[in-house]
Amino acid sequence: MSGWTKEELEAISKDDNLYISIPNPDGSMHRPAWIWIAQAGDDLYCRGYAGTSARWYQSAQREGQGHISVGGVEKDVRFEFPTDEETNDRVDEGYRQKYEGSPYLPPMISKRARQATVRLIPKD
Fold first, then answer.
1. Taking the model in full, what pTM does it have?
2. CA dist., res. 90 & res. 98, Å (int)
3. What is the CA radius of gyration of the chain?
4. How far apart are CA 61 and CA 78, in angstroms?
5. How many domains does the chain have?
6. Is 40 strand, coil or helix?
7. What is the rounded average pLDDT for all residues in the chain?
8. CATH number of the domain enclosing 112
9. Lowest mean pLDDT, pick from 23-27, 77-81, 92-96
10. What sign does the CA torsion over 33, 116, 46, 101 have?
């Protein structure tokens, strides 16, 4: 079970803009970063357009948790970093379904971006 409610998934699926905030080492929250979000099954994922060199991605790896705002949903989340091909293929399909026709889609399903896949898991 993903931990996301049906209502949350519906609201999030209608919005292309995810804002993610990650704590700084001193505990303060970093300014929100705008990134794309994709759904695969009942799970939510995001990726670094710049791959693993994206600053927000590096912070996500370091801190392991953050806060998201998307589609009217505000949620504290923890991060997982899947690297398996099956998950990444499903996430690619989620991006294709949501952002079909965008010139930014090819970079978001590239090998570089796939290396920076993050699963968003709601904290209880």
1. 0.93
2. 13
3. 13
4. 10
5. 1
6. strand
7. 94
8. 2.30.110.10
9. 23-27
10. positive
- Tell me the one-letter amino acid at 51: G
| Rounded average pLDDT over 8-30 | 90
Half-sphere exposure of 66 (CA within 13 A, CB side): 30
One-letter identity of residue 99: Y
pLDDT confidence of residue 27: 85
Band of residue 25 on the pLDDT scale cut at 50, 70, 90: confident
> For the chain, what's the residue count?
124
- Domain of residue 23: give its range: 6-122
Structural domain contains residue 1: no
DSSP collapsed to 3 states, 54-102? CHHHHHHHHHCEEEEEECCEEEEEEEECCCCHHHHHHHHHHHHHHHCCC
CB 79 within 8 A of CB 119: yes
- What pairing do the DSSP bridges indicate for beta strands 37-40 and 43-47? antiparallel
Residues forming beta bridges with residue 69, ordered by sequence position: 19, 74
Task: Give the model confidence (pLDDT) of 49-66 as tens digits.
Answer: 999 999 999 999 999 999
